[in-house]
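Worked example (supplementary).
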Amino acid sequence: MLFKYLTAKNEDIPPGTATIYFGFSSILWFIIGTGLGSFNAAKLAFPDFVTGTELFAFGHMRQVHVLAVILGWISMAFAMTMMYMTPALGNTRLWSEKLGVWTAFLWNVGLSLGLFLLWLGFTSGREYSDLIWPIDLVVVFGVLLPLGINVWMTIAQRKTQGIYITNWFFGACIFMVIIVFLVGNSAELFNLTGLTEGYLTFWFAHNVLGLWITPVAAAIAYYTIPKLSGNPLYSHRIGHLHFWAIIAFYSTPASHHLLSAPLPEWLKSFASVEGVLILIPAVAFVANILLTIKGRWSMFVENIETKFSITGVLLAIPLNMQGGFQQTRAINWYVHGTGWIVAHAHLALLGMSSFLEIAAVYFGLQQMLKRKLYSLALANFHYWFVIIGFCIYWISMTIAGLIQGGGKIYEVPYIDVVIAEHPYMIARWIGGTMVFTGNVVWLYNMYMTAREGTVVPKGRYAHELAYER
Amino acid sequence: MAWKMDNPLYCLADEEEARKALELWESEKPGGLWEGNNRLPYPLTWLIALIILTAFMITMPIWGQRPTAELYAPMVELMDSPEVQKLATGPEKIAYLTERAMEVHRNAEDSRLPGLLDRHPISWEDLQLAAPGIREIVAGGGGTYGPESYNVIGDQVVLANFSGSWRPDGKRERVQPWWDKGYTIDVFYVSYFIIAMVIVCKRLPHFSQKPDMSKAS
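After joint prediction of all chains, the assembly is encoded as:
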């Protein structure tokens, strides 16, 4: 049905179409991403699971999972939120609904193609920037730039004089992630090798996390929490501190990923200090949101979007405590290259970031569909499966990482470490599969919301209405 | 952009500018939302100061200092002596050598050495493996670089990979410093950030002035 809008005139496309397109796409990619994650985890837990073909080998599957989650789920959820929050915060309409629909269409096609090629083995061979350069260019010029143009133009034609903090982040982060993609992938474009390639690889990986995945998620919370709670954002000035601290301290510490590499020591020293200073924007963000929800904590129990949002905000605390300190020389030598880092990455992407996006997708889809969520029970099922599954994953991988670290330092034979880790690999698979199951239920719930959800009267918000079932 | 500099830590905007900002604040609700003008709570201000201090303290190069040829040179010098030869076991030999080396390092100009040896104990077997390389460096095999510029990594004695300042001979310093230019850059970078943030926040109306959002549309 959405395909018909690709050829329609902009003024004939109902507001919210791009949001809905992106919203359902993101949920679908979340299911694909977590399904692949569950499959890969099963291969680690049960080594005889699906063998005999190299296409299903872990080395072929892992990066497809990672990029399906980052570029499919998380980034499309971001685009979805930008499609409805940016105009709402400017008291205006989206600059071009048609461009939004085309962006969503090209994004799905480009990502499907990119991941299919990746699965076949067409890869740059660099972690996180695994896609081959033609696909990188599609991502930049076919996806991110059109998204950026729509967001920047919507901000430019706003009806308010001020720009709300969420839109600062949206506008700036799209700009920065385009730069990150172009510079970070230049190693492949210009055949850079060795240490330069290594540095650029982790410059990309670090900044995709630091200038896209976590700050945009935070920007979403600046909208959802005041919106749902009805409270004013606690502090505009703390918002400034958060925003500028992200720009200053998150863009600089890439070399803390390479403390064992022969990079100049001064660069590592600089990066390590900056890495701890990432706690500044984290403190500002968490404080601002938790002080905003003050007096409305009952919503953490009663309202599903608030439940997801606040869980995401609370997960930002361990995320940044880990992130700030695990990158110091004193700790990194122990945890580097172990499952601890895998656990940390999931805390960022599946924990803090995803919970905030899930809340925004729930909220945005109900608003744009003008329908109340079909089933609160299913939404709660989704919440508990995702949070319990995530915790099982995170805790088991953290323990596995500490075992690996000990094994590495004390030179324990590798096979003994593998055996010691086995129970945690099974736990990882169980946790990941719970997340996947929860997401399947979520898609069903949103599909039923679109079909049978209670119609929300004009001028009201879905979360203000009582559930009918 | 009217500035008021008489009390910069209170507010950098003059009354007219602050009034205009508050009026704007009160007149519009972007997306139905509004924002407070609260300060960062005091405990969090101190927490941020603590974070900055911690960032430097926990990442100081002292925690990442690597063992150098200079560190084990006194041990290598004595390892073939009759006092060591008469000791029966490796642990006994290395305990004796560590004690002697510690005495040498306590009197050395570089005050890092005793602590460094404490953090990088070596076994008799490893010392035997590294000894030929250390002897070669001490004997001048490192050219213009002395034993303090060489790291001991297992049985390898290799020129440290630090890129320090340029020396008069056109080569770089290889001694791992207590403090390097990365920290110097950080000091300036953090200082500039703090100054910039103070200016940004103090240009807003003082936090005691709360916008009245009942006027917003």
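Two points are worth noting when inspecting this output. Chain A has a mean pLDDT of 95. Chain A touches chain B through 56 residues (CB under 8 Å).
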